[in-house]
Amino acid sequence: MAHVVAEPCVGCKFTDCVEVCPTNCFYETADRVVINPDECIDCTSCVPVCPVAAIFAEGDLPDQWKSYIASNRDLMAGATQITVKKEALGKGTPKCQPK
Ligand code: SF4
Ligand code: SF4
Questions:
Q1: 29 within 8 A of 81, measured Cβ to Cβ
Q2: Distance between CA atoms of 65 and 54, rounded to whole angstroms?
Q3: If one looks up domain 3-85 in CATH, what number appears?
Q4: Structure pTM?
Q5: Is the pLDDT score of 99 beyond 90?
Q6: Where are the domains of the chain?
Q7: Share of residues in the chain with pLDDT > 90 (%)
Q8: Pair type for strands 3-5 and 80-81
Q9: Which atom of ligand 1 is nearest to the CA of 13?
Q10: What is the number of the ligand closest to the CA of 47?
Q11: Average pLDDT of the chain?
Q12: Which atom of ligand 1 is nearest to the CA of 5?
């Protein structure tokens, strides 16, 4: 099992999550972050800090976002490790309003 970043992150990419992960298993692509499923220890620290509630334990993912389990793993190939918060990609856009 691992935690998974789902659709609410896409285009928003607040990056609060990357600073609380004890195993530094967040990686970024141009429009989102993903979690390396081989490095996540399911500590849950990242879940409450995501402003748009994008992170779920694999078993808790809503049905419409189940495909993100595979896409998190697939996107790892071209992703870069991120450990320091940066300005949100979607700051101020309607989709990225904090929940
Ligand atoms: S805090 Fe949430 S929106 Fe921000 S990068 Fe992490 S998963 Fe994406
Ligand atoms: S659950 Fe813990 S180990 Fe997994 S990505 Fe979130 S902070 Fe990192």
A1: no
A2: 10
A3: 3.30.70.20
A4: 0.95
A5: no
A6: 3-85
A7: 95
A8: unpaired
A9: 5
A10: 2
A11: 96
A12: 7
Q: Residues of the chain with pLDDT > 70: what percent? A: 100
Q: What is the C-alpha separation between 88 and 64, in angstroms, rounded?
A: 25
pLDDT for residue 67: 97
Best mutation site among 15, 29, 44, 96 for ligand 1 pocket (most ligand atoms within 8 Å of CB): 15
Ligand that lies nearest to the alpha carbon of residue 4, given by its number in the listed order: 2
Pocket test for ligand 2, best of 27, 32, 36, 44 (most atoms within 8 A of CB): 44
Per residue, the 3-state secondary structure of the chain, as one string, reads: CCEEECHHHCCCCCCHHHHCCCCCCEEECCCCEEECCCCCCCCCCCCCCCCCCCEEEHHHCCHHHCHHHHHHHHHHHHCEECCCCCCCCCCCCHHHCCC
